[in-house]
């Protein structure tokens, strides 16, 4: 017997069934992501990239820092406006916008946008992931070892607590400044 997945899976067979599921349901105020292949795990582009080249996971944070450093060094040649040099989360959002592999995974507040991305290139079974964003918080240990909520958007927090990669975390949020693509995708 296969292992039980740690999430609920719902299959819908029609657009009407999907509309019934998301309209006036417990899924309002959730975040959504569409995948054109339902077999794809929920990995970031950076994770897929590093896995495909069989990079040892212990080296992932170093690789990410290298990609970030290179992008920052070259961005001035292509951008008229760029984030503060120390705002790594904002830089990652900008990198994501330009197609660079990052640890970020884009979600939307709109189930309709997620369905569009799921079905746009689907050739078989597609999927829409839905996350209860209110239950997701980033936590990091403080000086006493107690886990406290940490907002990666606060100056220095992302680099101090998250960029090193030694603390597994999931954080739901948006960059301080939204780029055009983020705005268009809700």
Summarize the model shown.
This protein is of the alpha+beta class and about 190 residues long.
Describe this structure as you would to a colleague:
The chain is 34% helix and 9% strand. The protein has 186 residues and is α+β, with helices and mostly antiparallel strands. The strands form two sheets. The protein has a two-stranded antiparallel ribbon. A two-stranded antiparallel ribbon has the order 3-4. The N and C termini lie far apart (40 Å).
Secondary-structure-based class equals alpha+beta
Helical content stands at 25-40%
Largest β-sheet summary: 2 strands, antiparallel
Q: Roughly what fraction of the amino acids lie in strands?
A: 5-15%
What is the alpha-carbon Rg in Å? 18 Å
Order of helices and strands: HEHHHHEEEHH
Shape: globular
Mean of the pLDDT scores?
A: 84
Kindly report the spatial arrangement of strands forming the biggest sheet: 1-2
* Low-confidence parts: none
Give the termini distance in whole angstroms.
Answer: 40 Å
- Kindly state the number of beta strands: 4
Give the key terms:
186 residues, alpha+beta, two-stranded antiparallel sheet, two-stranded antiparallel ribbon, 4 strands, 34% helix
What's the layout of helices and strands?
Elements: H1 15-22, E1 31-35, H2 45-52, H3 60-75, H4 88-97, H5 111-120, E2 127-131, E3 139-141, E4 147-149, H6 157-163, H7 180-184
Antiparallel strand pairs: 1-2, 3-4
């Amino acid at each position: 017997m296969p292992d039980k997945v740690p999430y609920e899976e719902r299959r819908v067979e029609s657009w009407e069934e999907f509309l019934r599921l998301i309209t006036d349901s417990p899924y309002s105020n959730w975040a959504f992501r569409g995948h054109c292949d339902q077999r794809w795990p929920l990995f970031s582009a950076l994770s897929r990239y590093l896995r495909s080249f069989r990079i040892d996971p212990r080296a992932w944070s170093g690789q990410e820092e290298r990609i970030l450093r290179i992008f920052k060094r070259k961005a001035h040649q292509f951008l008229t406006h760029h984030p503060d040099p120390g705002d790594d989360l904002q830089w990652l959002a900008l990198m994501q916008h330009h197609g660079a592999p990052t640890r970020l995974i884009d979600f939307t507040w709109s189930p309709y946008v997620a369905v569009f991305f799921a079905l746009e290139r689907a050739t078989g079974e597609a999927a829409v992931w839905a996350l209860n964003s209110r239950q997701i918080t980033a936590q990091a240990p403080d000086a006493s070892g107690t886990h406290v909520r940490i907002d990666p958007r606060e100056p220095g927090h992302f680099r101090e607590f998250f960029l090193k990669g030694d603390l597994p975390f999931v954080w739901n949020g948006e960059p301080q400044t939204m780029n055009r693509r983020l705005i268009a995708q809700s």
